[in-house]
Amino acid sequence: MGMRFLHGTLVFSLFLLLSLFNIAGSVYAAPWFTTYGGGVISGNADSDSIKSTQPYFAPLAVFKSALIQPGMVTPNPTMPSFAYGGIITSGSITSPTDKDAFAKNIGVLGGSLPDYQRFANKATTVIPANCDHNKLLTSCNLSPGIYKASLADINSSLNNLNTGDKKYHIGGNKDGLLVLVQDPASTGTVAINYKVQPVSSAGYKRLVLITNTKINISSTVGNTNFPTQAQYLSQNADIQAMLITTSTSDPAVEVATGANKLKIEGPIISKGKMRFRRDAGTAWPGVFVQYNPFYITELAKLDASLNIFGSSSVRWVYE
Amino acid sequence: MNKLNQQAGQTLLIIIFAITLGLVALVGVSTRIVTSTRRVFIDNAYYKAQAVAEAGAEKFLLKSNADLATLKVGCTTSLYTGDGFNTTELTAHPECVVDLGESRAAVAVEAYPSAGINTYEVNSPANSTILINLLNATSGNDVRVCWQGVNSLGPAYAEILSFYYSKDGSDYLLTQQKHECKGSLSWCGSPPAGYSANDGIEDANVDGDYSCFDVRITDTPQILNLMSLGNGSSYKITFTGAVSSQGYKITSVGEVKSGATGGGSLAGSTATRKKVVVEKSSMPNLGSWFNFAVASESGKIVAE
């Protein structure tokens, strides 16, 4: 009888403990990340190739439809049940409907990442002689184009974004991209220690950084103040640049730990694993990637004249 | 005596007959040799004309789009006529001529689709994207995308993701939609193994054996990116109003020069003039990656 009572007590305790863990796991589901305006895609075929906890009951439920988890055994009941295959998409934040989350089961993607070496070979825009290579993003005021720079110059130029008006400068008064390709001869890590934002100027300008090394985003980049949801959605991203790395190191892209909320513009593209370690609590995503359609639009125009990507369809007709 | 004369006459007739027979045989053999030689000449001319035409097309395919845009000004279709080269134009535009010694090609560059044509046809393999240029397309109109899923065996089930990029004032916008094929089409049956279909919008229209949807051109149009899921797809993209240029049409006409060995005497005949046409898209295959906010080719994306 005593044994039976003890057994019953143990089972009850275990059940209570598991329940508490479950509750705790739900409440403290952070860190997590989400996207807006564009999905997340992974060529990895694993069911858990994309992991991000989803506090669907969070008071700031504005993000609740923005992430669908591919690896969930028991899908969140408020989520559409088509979250498999390594792709998740953001829906409309103001009016989430199933049709916004439109992609699934892509599996292994055709094609491959842009050819880094080809990018490097095409990076032939000449850096002006009077440009201090430590200030490629500031006082040099480089015109839109594709430039090759050493890793040391890229890192020092990124660090110089902590001086002066703390913004990057791109010349000209038209929309354009400044594409910085890391010189393949240099090795190391791209270190982003400060915000990467363009100065207000005529024309829509953005930076594209292409490297074959790891990209580190330090814990200091981000915000600790918590604005309203609407403010957070509309405010400028902390990193207003597109990052591409062909590194296969683990991780190839790392967002360091910390409590700062990091808002970054997408696409952010990596050959290897991305680890988002930022923890901004349950209500806010530690990393929020807001898709910016400008990059693909402008890259298409740039490539139409430069053939950086090197592939376009050709049809032969014999007459 | 009479008998002798009769025998001589018979011999003469036989000789004349033999000579005639020999001459006929000789003429026959000669004709055959001449015909054969001419055929060799024609074959040589054909291959030389074809070779130089292909060489001209390939040389221009290697040029950048910026160079093709420049060449389009001078390298027009007035370089040649149905009767041969326009030597005045050829002399004025040597940049449009590819010379291989005994043969040469005149290469013309035009916008593609050609004037008066409002449909652009293109194919893409499974899980790949194609870019359609929409610059200068008429805002407020529709661009109709008709498509048919294809695999190595023929028409097959597929789905389409469409990404429409536009600019509104200073803002760049993306409108995305997943499309399912019109269910009544014979190829729109079962998805391939391992592919779960749905969650898209079924197309409302068909064009023959193609499933069709419309993309409304809003704001200032930029590009349309189409991604074929499950299988590859063949597309027919039809503009209403202005037709956006998708690239260049390169026409290379090869001809053996007059007096050249092996066919030169045939200069001017159709045997010595060959045409090769190449349609080259000026839009890059940027890959699927750029349509998504976060993308990893082989690794995982983890919040931890």
TrEMBL record, chain B:
The chain crosses the membrane at residues 12-34. This is Uncharacterized protein. Keywords: Membrane, Transmembrane, Transmembrane helix.
